[in-house]
Amino acid sequence: MTLLDGKQTSKEIKEEIKTTVSEMKARGERVPHLAAVLVGDDGASLTYVGSKVRSCEYVGFDSTLIRLEADISESTLLKQIDQLNRDDTLDGYIVQLPLPKHINEEKILLAIDPNKDVDGFHPANFGRMALELDAFIPATPFGIMQLLERYKVPTSGKHCVVVGRSHIVGRPISILMSQKGTAGNATVTVAHSRTENLADLTRQADIIVMALGIPEYLTADMVKEGVVIIDVGITRVADQSHPKGYVIRGDVAFDEVAEKASFITPVPGGVGPMTIAMLLKNTLLARQWNLT
């Protein structure tokens, strides 16, 4: 069994980006600039955005954090989005989700300039990705594809079952896995919480991408020997014996499934660390596309 180490791979990608940025500086070029918009004081969002800002500093990007009050009006937030769209010194930006309930997330995401949408959530980028054109790919699916490619996981002609149909992970990864490419050419089945006899599907799968959000849902009796497991799930499970009062669990019962797997991502330390690395990669792409 080979562990698909997202923590180590993300470090390698950051080092590659850092080298590229150093070369840009040596040529006198402006370095990539990423901004993050944070509305309110959600603890998890603060943690994620803080990590993104530190990663920008590490690779040599310019970064801007825009903090807005939780009671900001939708119209005022849209004006902020418009300002970011018009800022020529900014290559890409993200609006950290979730947003307060009085703000329509879809309306905000649609207002983002697709050329600066480094989260890859805008329909224009989703459509370009589906058509195999240059596009910003959502960071989590992008990270999964990088793991498969860098670990040389066999995917061509394999049966891949994606469990989950979100626009952020399930749908895009199902498209990417079926496309031509180093980590593609798979035959893909998309399953979800309403799928009947899900275990019958997963037992047939050569590759399983779990993005259901139910901790330790996939057990050893649901997979075949030699299966490749990509676990996107990340759930806090109460555990009073742990100093934090909780533990992090994926969608896969790791210990028992790992015994049958040929490749598997851990949780934490698998897909999660790749997400920020790929956000940085998208920002670098945005800067490079602005140069052409």
Descriptive tags:
single chain, 292 residues, alpha/beta, Rossmann fold, six-stranded parallel beta sheet, three-stranded parallel beta sheet
Present the secondary structure layout.
Elements: E1 2-3, H1 6-26, E2 33-39, H2 43-59, E3 62-68, H3 74-86, E4 92-95, H4 105-111, H5 123-130, H6 139-150, E5 159-163, H7 170-178, E6 187-191, H8 198-204, E7 207-210, E8 227-231, E9 235-238, E10 246-249, H9 254-258, E11 261-264, H10 271-291
Parallel strand pairs: 1-11, 2-3, 2-4, 5-6, 5-7, 7-8, 8-11
Antiparallel strand pairs: 9-10
Helix pairs in contact: 1-10, 6-7, 6-10
Number of domains: 2
How far apart are the termini?
Answer: 43 Å
**The top level CATH class name of the largest domain:** Alpha Beta
Output the radius of gyration. Answer: 19 Å
Give the CATH superfamily of the largest domain. NAD(P)-binding Rossmann-like Domain
> Can you give the mean pLDDT?
95
By helix and strand content, what is the structural category? Answer: alpha/beta
Largest sheet: 6 strands, parallel
List low-confidence stretches.
Answer: none
Which word captures the global form? globular
* CATH fold description of the largest domain: Rossmann fold
Please list the strands of the largest sheet in the order they lie side by side: 1-11-8-7-5-6
Number of strands: 11
Question: How much strand?
Answer: 15-25%
Helix content class:
40-55%
Q: What is the element string, with H for helices and E for strands?
A: EHEHEHEHHHEHEHEEEEHEH
* H/I helix tally: 10
The appropriate CATH architecture of the largest domain is 3-Layer(aba) Sandwich
